[in-house]
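Progress report, Aim 2. The chain analyzed during this reporting quarter is listed below.
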Amino acid sequence: MAKPKTIYACQTCGAQSPKWLGRCPECDAWNSYVEETNIEAKRSLLPETISMALPLAEIQSDEGHHIPTGIEEFDRVLGGGYVPGSMILIGGDPGIGKSTIMMQAFSRIASKGKKLLYISGEESASQIKLRADRMNVSEKSFYVVAENCLERVVEQIKKLKPDVIAIDSIQTIYTNDIQSAPGTVSQVRECAAKLLMLCKGSNIACFLVGHVTKEGAIAGPKVLEHMVDAVLYFEGERGHAYRILRTMKNRFGSTNEIGVFEMTGQGLMEVKNPSDIFLAERPHASAGSVVVSSLEGSRPVLLEIQALVSSSPLANPRRTSLGIDSQRVNLLVAVLEKIVGLQLYDHDIFVNVAGGIRITEPASDLGVMAAIASSFKNKPINHTTILIGEVGLTGEVRAVMGIEARLKEAQKMGFTKAVIPSSNLKSKFSSKLEVMGVTNVEACLELL
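Predicted structure tokens for the chain:
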């Protein structure tokens, strides 16, 4: 055995150094270096095999089919279901519902005759049984083991030969090949690599549950997200019952897809029509309230944007935004001041996306600016009008993609008018809405 060598590894990005550093030169994180003992890794848990080069036309692609889990919102995010031999990473804040969604998905898969193994490094088997009883999960092909040692986990997998496994969580698993604490960069990287080799070689689908840091990123090395086939993030505010499962990476489907769930006493319930839920309590004839259409992957979702503008006695007025990038809001406020001529420099501005969901695409720019102007002038916008469009720094309204899908969703929800970019009128689409095209922000505000 090689002599153990002491190194220091960054717990944020995985960078290594022969000596301790106060700040990581790779990711600029402070006090993130931890001492670890690096020894020569043992042989793989799988027998060595030699891969032969084959012509692309002769390679069979029948292993890439999706197997539905039985939860439509979960399958939407996965691209139709899980793929045998794939590794899927699910991250999210504590208590957001990661273990719950895995328990429910495993229950549905087990009901189809598949053999499943749920490996828990955080809870005992009796604790998992209590949660399963609360969620009415009692399938006989659903196996549970409470174990933290990777070598013993691999023995259980080889003995049971399941179709699907879940590791909850990867940060609690350790291997005896590395003399460092569970959850460190080297442990997470080595355990994930060995599980990946095992699952690919045995054609077992593997779900990894991962912790997140206070910044919202998956805890552990960034290489973990590169190794897996799909990365899913659970989002949601603690004060709201709704949870968003978002795809950040998927080798077998589209990215940026979302699944919407509602947390209840019996677990996570699917929300088949998110637009109806998010607009259920929208006030009518209220200044500062505007509805926009956000395209999440292939799904258009209608959301209410609320703005409140009030005079401020402070030398530096407050700019607060929830559910949308604050820097983006500041940019749009500057356009309203410079191009439109609204005097907002001495006003507090608060912007909120109702429902606890977060908007990431720029097609909501026009709605944000209309909501701010509506609150500033105290003039409500017609509650049957929807606004869609990206706004540039010179006040121009730019085209957005998926305009036909957005308008169909608005029509289904009972809207009668839509304000969209003029350049989107060139595309061929059919809609029963009264569609109005605008080229700049000033023209949009005049219509409203």
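The radius of gyration is 25 Å. The chain has three domains: 1-38, 67-272, 277-447. These observations will guide the mutagenesis work planned for the next reporting period.
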